[in-house]
Amino acid sequence: MPVPVDVQFTLFAKILSFDRNFDVREKTAVTIGILYQGTYRTSLHAKDDAVRALQTASISVSGKLVRFVEFDVAEGIDRLTPDMLGGIDVLYITPLRAVDIASIAGLTRTRSIRSLTGVPEYVASGVAVGIGTRGERPEIVINLPAAKLEGSNYSSQLLKLARVIP
């Protein structure tokens, strides 16, 4: 991942506030699912960095506290069912090895869960929002069709700042 996880989550919190359909007014907290592979060291470290960022940084989404739930897919993505994702508002996808990203994107669309990643290549495979780099700076990458299928409606202000995949 080209951008540190703590920077990613700071950006993700702002990005979600630009989603006009991401309504958290009735919620006490926003729940983020962290999808990782415990048998893949890079994925495990990314999960640990995400947990640390969410626990130590004062990250909030639209003024709401952020909670997290961890999902280890080391034994296969088929163990991740739509019912397991109940109550999750956002799914953060760490680097994964030998996992079909499109099938994960299908689950997020089924449940209207916003999908985020720090692996910009995953955005082309169906993840809605990713963070990459352009030169030395972080770059927001948005797969607009995927985001719409998840129920997002990002403002034009955000879309002007992002690299949009049509």
Q: Would you write up a description of this structure?
A:
The protein has 166 residues and is α/β, with parallel strands linked by helices. The protein has a single domain, classed as Rossmann fold (3-Layer(aba) Sandwich). 34% of the residues lie in helices and 24% in strands. It contains six helices and seven strands; from the N terminus they run H-E-H-E-E-H-E-H-E-E-H-H-E. The chain has helices at residues 5-17, 41-56, 101-111, 121-124, 144-149, 156-161, and strands at residues 29-36, 65-72, 90-93, 114-117, 129-134, 137-143, 163-165. A seven-stranded mixed sheet has the order 2-1-3-4-5-6-7, sandwiched between helices. Helix 3 (101-111) links the parallel strand 3 (90-93) and strand 4. It is globular, with a radius of gyration of 14 Å.
Short description:
With 166 residues, the protein is α/β, with parallel strands linked by helices.
The name of the CATH superfamily reads: Response regulator
Q: What fold name goes in the CATH topology slot?
A: Rossmann fold
Q: What distance lies between the first and last C-alpha atoms, to the nearest angstrom?
A: 23 Å
Counting DSSP H or I runs of 4 or more residues, the number of helices is: 6
Strand segment count? 7
Low-pLDDT parts are: none
Biggest sheet character: 7 strands, mixed
Instruction: Spell out the helices and strands N to C.
Output: HEHEEHEHEEHHE
The CATH architecture designation is 3-Layer(aba) Sandwich
**Overall number of structural domains:** 1
Question: C-alpha Rg, in Å?
Answer: 14 Å
- Secondary structure category: alpha/beta
Overall form: globular
Strand content: 15-25%
Q: What percentage of residues falls in helices of 4 or more residues?
A: 25-40%
Biggest sheet, strands in spatial order?
2-1-3-4-5-6-7
The average pLDDT score comes to: 92
